[in-house]
Amino acid sequence: MNSGSLHEFLVGLHERHGPVVSFWFGRRLVVSLGTVDVLKQHINPNKTLDPFETMLKSLLKYQSGNESGSENLMRKKLYENGVTNSLQSNFALLLKLSEEVLDKWLSYPETQHVPLSQHMLGFAMKSVTQIVMGSTFEDDQEVIRFQKNHGTVWSEIGKGFLDGSLDKSATRKKQYQDVCTWAICFLTTSEEVQKKLHKEVDQVFGKDPVTPEKIEHLRFDPDRFDDESAMKTFSSLGFSGTKECPELRFAYTVTTVLLSVLVKRLHLLSVEGQVIETKYELVTSSREEAWITVTKRH
């Protein structure tokens, strides 16, 4: 039976059989939990041998030591190919969502404070849900509902991270970043860096639209951040390191598209007197909302 995407298959399965279902995925028996209430009943990251924790550790790339290096390499290549194909086939969607953010910010008065974290969370949720699960999530209400459920799951994962039942190694922590938010935050703190980025974006795109081919000509240049304090900040937030998950390239590409669209048309400015304190969990985030203002480029 052709059930479409995995998401559509699971929705249909739960509609027919209830909130807890099982099915064979190849030779592996999989149990799917279809409601947040049921999920809460089964999350217990404090038990070392709890199967749900084992699944979470697998998702978060915590190795058990039972897999060979060749198996890990093969899996990584499969992930990388999947990320590459996804980026190529969904570039138009990423561009559309980035332009929606631009249009919203262009509509604001220049003195209006923009809730950066909130807007970037919405952008990230729309990007991921529409790319992975399709047109269902073009409906903002579906995205909001998904975001609430996602928050519940992420909170439970975070508890395991904080209480020690999930490994706290720095290399792992660095892999999870709110890249879009921090990239824009840092750009607002340095007018010189933003000028250099705008110059590069202008040289690469000119008045032409952002395209996958031209995006490849934009490169991260560490010399932009040659100030010692800036380099330390970027290192602590995970913009460096040798162990990168394949999804990190996906995040960087999404961020590059968004920044290219925004910087072409807008000056990104910090709010005077604002001090952004960081909160270190699975994702390094600001403790409170990060506010910015924007002005149009002429």
Automatic annotation (TrEMBL):
InterPro entries cross-referenced by the UniProt entry: CYP450_20A1-like, Cyt_P450, Cyt_P450_sf
Alphabetized GO MF terms: heme binding; iron ion binding; monooxygenase activity; oxidoreductase activity, acting on paired donors, with incorporation or reduction of molecular oxygen
Gene3D superfamilies per UniProt: Cytochrome P450 (1.10.630.10)
A single GO cellular-component term on record: membrane
Pfam families: p450
Superkingdom as given in the UniProt entry: Eukaryota
Family, as annotated: Belongs to the cytochrome P450 family.
Protein name per its UniProtKB record: Cytochrome P450 20A1
Organism lineage: Eukaryota, Metazoa, Chordata, Craniata, Vertebrata
